[in-house]
Amino acid sequence: MFDKIVPRSEDYAKWYTQVIRQAEMADYTPVRGCMVVRPYGYALWENVKEQLDIRFKETGHQNAAFPLFIPMSFIEKEAEHVEGFKPELAIVTHGGGEKLEEPLAVRPTSETIIGYMYSQWIQSYRDLPVLINQWANVVRWERRTRLFLRTMEFYWQEGHTAHATHAEAEEETLRILDIYTDFAVNEAAIPVIPGRKSESEKFPGALTSYTIEAMMGDKRALQAGTSHDLGQNFSKAFDIQYLDANQKQQHCWTTSWGVSTRIIGAIIMTHGDDQGLVLPPRLAPTQLVIVPIVPKNREDDKQAVMQAVDGICETLGSVRHHVDDRFEYSPGWRFNEWELKGVPLRIEIGPRDLSNQQVVLARRDIPGKDGKTFVPIDNVAETVTQLLDTIQADMLRRATEFRDANTSEAATYDAFKGVVENGFVRARWCGDAACEDQAREETQATIRCIPLEQPGGDGECIVCGKPAGEIAVFARAY
To answer: pLDDT tens digit string along 402-434?
Structure first.
């Protein structure tokens, strides 16, 4: 039997790790800070990849693959970039039993190597735009790690594009932010706030960084995806130039953007409960589990029930389903396992149900009797499809209501300090880094983003009282 999972209210961090390991999503390895993504966790990641990949390709992007090793001289070409990543670099100094002439950085991100390749490929305005994405692993030497949220090696997609004008690059950056927002809301059922990062929080080497920020079940913030307008910083460092229509040499404008396996952590912490995972139907590896229930030594009943199960399976179409016919385990044990794994729907069917020509449908997002209904066997397929849509919508609604209920407005610094540990705080900020630093030092809260949607008008900075035209979202974060 599975170990008892500690309640979220007792130890949220321990709950998170226990759920991941017991649901067989991922596990630790002998290498500190690294993880093994197990088949169930990887199936969820594959569904994430599929939905994002569809969106990328619909907007003209193509997939490619770039090297894992990057010459150290490339990393050092863009000053802000190397300064930001230097503490996290893993560097190879020897290969094939010999010392390398030049050390190689193990890819922390690919702006530099891709920038070099773009400088070789782009010659004319006719070559633009270049819209490339890659699915890859990266390494960042993190000191404090947590499964999915922050590991030394993780999996992600990173898009890199080159454009003729800044306006086109900025349009691309915001287009990707919209894609991330659409994915988070409509596939992961996670309400997010799209916005701009402050200067201190932006990506090293970016002109502007945009983000989607989500509230987790412990009211902390999580950065779920980022999109960066890189300006001409990397194109000048790597000499990415093109000949324009007037036969003049111009530097390209570039972007980069990414979502990682951290999104799996976001799904777990947004929707999970004390029984384990609660997965949104559109991404769940298994959307429906069918659990046949037959008393011991009742072979005739078993045969009849399994025949009915086969008939149900034939009607389910594209619903991702699994039949748990491990009769050596009790029904309760099997129920608990699939609840732990967060499967959105469960069908229970036994001889009595069969005689009544019905099944029991149990929703994972509504535990206990309240989530159970009796459904005629002939209506199972239609009801399952409808319920999966309902569960998806209800999960987004509940997550949105939770975020909104734990978001405060603060007009004074004293009021801000009084509520910042209880979730998100929307407050005006003058844009001065000193005010941002003071709030961070005194409350451990950072500016998660300056939302794209602003109420307008003027007010006073939450910290210094100077005029402030924008609202920022402050929170303690992962």
So the answer is: 999 999 999 999 999 999 999 999 999 999 999
Q: What is the pLDDT of residues 355-372, one digit of tens each?
A: 999 999 999 999 999 999
Largest CA distance in the chain: 85
Cα torsion 209, 214, 218, 220 to 10°: value is: 20
**For 188-207, what is the mean pLDDT?**
96
Q: Who contacts 132 (Cβ-Cβ below 8 Å, separation ≥6)?
A: 61, 62, 63, 64, 114, 159, 160, 161
Determine if the peptide bond prior to 467 is cis (ω within 30°).
Answer: no
User: What is the pTM (predicted TM-score) of this model?
Assistant: 0.95
Helix segments in 59-88, DSSP class H: 72-75, 79-85
Nearest to 201 by CA among 364, 388, 39, 429: 429
Q: Six-digit token pair at 177?
A: 């932010």
| Rounded Cα gap, residues 425 and 431, in angstroms | 16
Per DSSP, 477 falls in state: B
Amino acid at 46: E
Separation between Cα atoms, residue 49 and residue 37, nearest integer Å: 15
With a CB cutoff of 8 Å and minimum separation 6, the contacts of 478 are: 146, 149, 150, 216, 220, 221, 222, 223, 265
Percent of the chain with pLDDT over 70: 99
Q: Average of pLDDT values for 147-174? A: 97
- Residue 153, classed as helix, strand or coil, is strand
Q: Which residues are within 8 A (CB) of 254 and not within 5 positions of it... i.e. 6 or more apart?
A: 111, 115, 118, 160, 161, 162, 163, 169, 230, 231, 232, 234, 235, 240
Residue spans of beta strands (DSSP E) within 147-248: 153-163, 192-196, 208-215, 221-229, 241-243
